[in-house]
Amino acid sequence: MLTPLFHRNLFLLFSALVAFSLPLSEVGVSVGMIGLVVNWIVESRFRLFPKLSRVELPLLLFLVIYALGIVGLIFTSDFSWAFHDLRIKLPLLLLPIVFFFSERLSEKEFRLILLALVLGVFIGSVASMLALFGVIPVEISSSRSISLFISHIRFSLLVCMAICGLIYLLIKDFSLLSISMRVGGIALAGWLFVFIFILQSITGMVILSVLTLVFLVWKILSIPNSMYRLWCFSFLGAALLIGASFITGTIASYYKVEIVDPNIENYTTANGRLYTNDFTSTASENGHYVDLLVCEEELAREWNRRGKVRYDELSTNGFHVKYALKRYLTSKGIPKDSVGVWSLCENEVTAISKGVANVLELSPFNIKGKIYRLVREMNVYMQDGNVGGSSLAQRFVYWKLAKEIFFENWLIGVGTGDLKLAYKQKYAENPSLLAPQFQLRAHNQYITMFTTYGLFGGFLFIAALIVPIILLRSWKEPLILAFSIIILLSMLNEDTFENHIGVSFAAFFYSVLIFSWKRTVPEIKS
User: Are 73 and 416 in contact (CB under 8 A)?
Assistant: First the structure.
């Protein structure tokens, strides 16, 4: 017969495996979770079920999220997809039960799980940089492609969680750590902070900014001297104003364009050819008009001599090279001719071949370029409804269709398995909205839950997430508050619970943090 100590060691081993594998391997996550459940069953901890009482209300509330899927089977017609959805969401049912009915995690055991996550994230970030610099031979079409193992958005969530875990460990054990460990921990946290911006995940950058703001406010409030607190809040306010000014200035710069020379129609290239000028076009890059000073003949000829992708072909990520080239040269204030093409360095030629269309987007550290691109995408969408490959504009289409689906089934929703069919029908009714490869769902977990389970089910989902944290007063623990912010904000821009890594991350750390590490209800013993 296996001893309790053996079962406990297996429990910790599989928990650490899940944490370590989240940024690296879906298979590793699955193996870890299956190991946790099997070990829990073999240990016969399910015998504790009859001892449930009203103090376990937070657990029962959280399990409502999975129960919604079961109830939703009543209203579904596509049972194949419904059972697929329930299978993906199994961690929301199993992990809370396993952790709640296991011995509470000690501080030492909790550190092990956090360090496993940090190690996995660090290895993932190193692999991403090796791919970015060509050491790992993979095709990199954009900064998001450097996330080799999972979606760059979900990777950014895990990076944020790893940063928070590192900060918690550094603050908790600072006096016990050697100088080298302190320096190493701070350096690692700093590296992961920088890596979020290299990854160029808007979701990750926004969440990290919110977490930083909350952390700074929390630290300032802990300062006993009221005058020092006032000075710190003043500096923080000034920093926020500078940041807001940078963002609004970048947005305003998009709409500032050059004054056109009245004699521009007489301009010629270095080879004596007249430029083509479309004065009706308002397209611009960095204040310069895209469709002025264009010589298609020279552009096509010289680009085909330099580029790996021909002038009239699509780039590796689906954009027309000729449009990317024109816009890129425009962003540098260079006429679109042979001289302009040969003024480009090899890195720029490679970037244009991948669809990069603005010099601001060339560097992964250029936040201004990211903001500028989002503004351009929204401006194009608002002007003519053109979505193209814009992920931001696509979301507005997804949400518009979700609104129609919701109001057609506002009370009980479409059911657990029918949301995919509902979207498919909407795209069939509006075939010109998006290209087939972009015809996806809401990319917003809240909207997905409201459309799937109706008004009552949507609010029940939100309550099942938040109320357990309130009942157990877990929000008072900074690390749990940080995790809550990560999950709740991620669901605004991502169907976090509709994929394996997303739902596993949420269910695992919700269970670890709230139903084990900081569990305040009495220990349930056999």
Answer: yes
Whole-number average pLDDT of the chain: 87
Alpha helices in 177-201 (DSSP H): 179-199
Backbone angles phi, psi at 368, to 5 degrees: -60, -40
Q: Which class for 83: exposed (0-12), middle (13-18), buried (19 or more C-beta within 10 A)?
A: middle
Mind giving me the DSSP string for 335-394?
A: -BSHHHHHTS-HHHHHHHHTT---GGGSSTT-HHHHHHHHHHHHHHHHHH---TT-HHHH
Which alpha helices (H) appear in 200-225, and where do they start and end?
A: 202-221
Give 465's contacts (C-beta < 8 A, 6+ positions apart): 62, 65, 487, 488
pLDDT given for residue 518 in this prediction? 67
Taking the C-alpha atoms of residue 244 and residue 262, their distance in angstroms, rounded to an integer, is 37
pLDDT at position 48, please? 62
Distance between CA atoms of residues 429 and 433, nearest Å: 9
Asked if 133 and 37 touch (Cβ cutoff 8 Å), the reply is no
| End-to-end Cα separation, the chain, in angstroms | 17
Locate 110 and state its tokens: 């909790």
Residue with tokens 């790996």: 308
Other CB atoms within 10 Å distance of the CB of residue 44: 10
The string of DSSP letters for 286-309 reads TTEETTSSB-HHHHHHHHHHH-SS
Q: What is the pLDDT of residue 54?
A: 46
Query: CB-based contacts of 433: which residues, under 8 Å, 6+ apart?
Result: 387, 397, 401, 427, 439
The letter for the amino acid at 158 is: L
Two structure tokens written together for 326: 């024109």
Contact 72, 452 (CB under 8 A): yes
Chain-centroid distance of CA 315 in Å reads: 25
Residues in the chain where the model's pLDDT stays below 50:
54, 522
Asked if residues 452 and 415 have their Cβ atoms less than 8 Å apart, the reply is yes
The predicted structure's pLDDT at residue 135: 87
What's the pLDDT score for residue 487?
A: 96
CA atoms of 67 and 351, how far apart (whole Å) = 48
What value does the CA radius of gyration of the chain take, rounded to a whole number of Å?
27
By the 10 Å C-beta count (0-12 exposed, 13-18 middle, 19+ buried), 8 is classed as middle
- Residue 380 is predicted with a pLDDT of 74
Per-residue pLDDT tens over the stretch 278-307:
888 888 888 899 999 999 998 989 899 888
- Distance between alpha carbon 85 and the CA centroid of its chain, in Å? 21
Give SS3 for 268: strand
